[in-house]
Amino acid sequence: MSKLKKTIVILVAIFLVLGGYFLIAFTMFSPPKTTFFSTNQVNYALKKRSDITDCYHAEQQTEVLNQSEFQLLVWNIHKGQDAGWQDTLHTLSHNADLLLLQEISSQQHLEKLLEKHFPYFVYAVSFAYHNTFSGVGTLAKFAPQTYCASATKEPWIKLPKVGVATTYPLLNGKSLLVVNLHLVNFEWNPTNYQQQLTEAFNLIATHQGPIILAGDFNTWNKRRLRLVEELANKHHFRPVSFSPDVRLHFMNNPLDHIFVKGLSVLDATTLETESSDHNPLLIKLKLD
Which part of the chain is the Endonuclease/exonuclease/phosphatase domain (predicted)? Predict the structure, then answer.
């Protein structure tokens, strides 16, 4: 066998070994693996299932919210890989009613870290690496009436991105819908990206009541940003402006966004931090 053939055989063998290791090390979930953590007894039943989405409904009426103002923290926390994330999260969430977090690692144990202030936690994971899960989570001071989780695969790396939607009953008989998204990233022609966005807006279109749509939209080029803005405008959302605005940008485009419908913005700001590769978004809203 020539040296060239030996080299090719060795490279193919290495590729197969690495590929096999990747397949063994990673576990994919579609629909996403959804866990509901609570310090209070609330039971949920599966009401809807598809290849990419699961929806659950409380088996009893959850508490109706008697407040008209809400404070939120929206933050991609980078799997807790950056020093000081615990202190920053505690500080920023002190006055919040809802936390919309992306890139949560199961190794962060947020269900224990934050359970005193946020007793309700919907955690949806798209994949596990050596039994360490990663996904999106919505933590709240009040119990959701329903929650849904959906996943869309990245076309190149095949690791799904996840979205979580939760509803909370209001005094007027309607409910507040909160949609927490982490959108497809590694795709130049945004086919899967648009699919994930469209699925989210299809859910939104059926909701009667105020809506918060937020998260890491991975809008790193103008085409992606335009898709988001067009859909948001079509469904009568208002984009939130921040002061100061120090959101993470890529190619001069912001990656993280908040859109609202049926709510007024009382305050919206962002903060610089070294506790993640994304800067957190803080917002105070009031029902219209």
Answer: 74-278
